[in-house]
Structure formats: C-alpha cells, structure tokens
C-alpha cells in the first residue's frame, strides 16, 4: 500500500479544456436540416391596452399548414414546411432552407379572448390580433357618495 500526496489541482481542468467543452456543447452548426428550433420561427409580440399583436415570419409556408391554439395565456403556433423533392437530372449544390415541423409557444402576461381572435396572413407574415379577456382588463372603481359626512362643531341643532 502506498500513500499518495493529495494534489488539489489534479482533478481540476484547464481553462482551455473548459472553454473547448463549453464551445462544443453550445455551438450550433449553420445550414442544418430537419426540424427547426424555436429560434427559426421569429416573432414580434406587442401589447396595447386591449390586445396583443403577434407577427410571425413564415416564408414559404401555406396558411393551411399552420395551426394556432390559445389556452389561457399561452399561444402556440405549429406548422409544417415541406421540402422540395430532388427531380431527375437535378443535383443539389447547396440546400440551406429549412423544412420540417415547427412549434413555438409564448406565454402572454394575461389571458386572451380566443373567440374574438383574428389571424391574417400576407407575404409570408402571420399577424395575430388577440384581444385580452374582459376579466384581465383593468377596471376603474368609482368611490360612491353613499354616506355624506357632516362637517361642523359636533353639536346638534
């Protein structure tokens, strides 16, 4: 049996190894095919007093291939972008456009009234107008004048 002196630096990794590991785990290769990530469905979300307006870029996607659901305060946009098939006598040199299924969910700050929602699709941009539910809208409560205060010196006449 031999006794080995404890070295606290033996089990640590070098800064170079740590950076290499970090970059390898987080690196995203451009031009990847298949299922796009949530970042490939860019959204703009704005809020007014009465509703939310969401714009989604969906170039090349047919409106029939998009499903929109609202559950409480969560909006989900799902769809499918179909790939072009290679034709006989045609060979791809570069193929960067993404295809496949996509899904993006966004939590809104208040519930919306899905019965009054409107969706428009023009030039590859989906525009959703989601009115806030009546329960979620701020209401002003007026102070009533039910009991009049009597001002005086406190004696009855």
From TrEMBL:
Residues 34-146 form the SHSP domain. InterPro entries: A-crystallin/Hsp20_dom, CS_dom, HSP20-like_chaperone, Small_HSP. It comes from the Bacteria. CDD domains: ACD_sHsps-like (cd06464). Residues 137-157 are annotated as: Disordered. PROSITE patterns: CS, SHSP. It holds the Pfam family HSP20. Residues 38-141 form the CS domain. Belongs to the small heat shock protein (HSP20) family. This is Spore protein SP21.
